[in-house]
Amino acid sequence: MRTEGLAAIVTGGASGLGAAASRALADAGVKVAVLDRDGTGAAAIADEIGGIAVTCDVADAESAEAAVAQATRAHGLARILVTCAGIADAGRIVGHGGPIALAAYARVIGINLIGTFNLMRLVAAGALALEPLDGGERGVIVTTASIAAYEGQVGQAAYASSKAGVVGLTLPAAREFAPTGIRVCSIAPGLFETPMMKSLPRHVRDGLGASVPFPSRLGRPEEYAALVLAIVANPMLNGEVIRLDGALRMQSK
């Protein structure tokens, strides 16, 4: 899909992978709506790239519907969706204080999985109303899973199962939208330089980077963004979850 002049929505766009994807899409000529709960951060990225910022809670139906409507008024219906909004709250299923609070588990599922589905349903509904481009494409949806979906560690039950849900959503969504020319792929990053990772001490980050077979370092958000652009550009990429992890396979702890 040629990107020049198209509209895109990026969730979690105020920082990390979402900010990098927003910048890359804008550089490719896309009109980007940066969605995030952090309205100030979203505005900073939007100002930088010439897009618009929209405050949005992806897990809330009304908030997401209002955000998509605002983005549509500014840029027209989006043909590209990139979902990067997510949290990685850790906790054992049963810790020293007893079982984890169900609300804590539900919060992770709500943002990571339901939030992904929420924006997917809204953007896909809009893209279905658009005329197909050359080759029959109407849109591309790129979601963000994690290698934790496959090798979740102790303490990652909520996060890993939320991301496994994103993996499981990919193929049925791609199959459903295939007759109308909307593609769906997911990226499963490994260890990346995100704000959460940057909050760790330097020696911890260096140790995590060294655990990656090659390149032996943390991934850069720009490398995630480059894969987003590659997926958008290549019409044969559909229904696939692509690991972006330097051949890392996580241990149990």
From TrEMBL:
Q: What PROSITE patterns does the database record attribute to this sequence? A: ADH_SHORT
Q: Which InterPro entries match?
A: NAD(P)-bd_dom_sf (IPR036291), Sc_DH/Rdtase_CS (IPR020904), SDR_fam (IPR002347)
Single GO MF descriptor: oxidoreductase activity
- Superkingdom, according to UniProt? Bacteria
Per UniProt, which keywords does this protein have? Oxidoreductase
- PANTHER family from the entry? 17-BETA-HYDROXYSTEROID DEHYDROGENASE 14-RELATED (PTHR43658:SF8), SHORT-CHAIN DEHYDROGENASE/REDUCTASE (PTHR43658)
- Family note: Belongs to the short-chain dehydrogenases/reductases (SDR) family.
Protein name as it appears in the record: Oxidoreductase
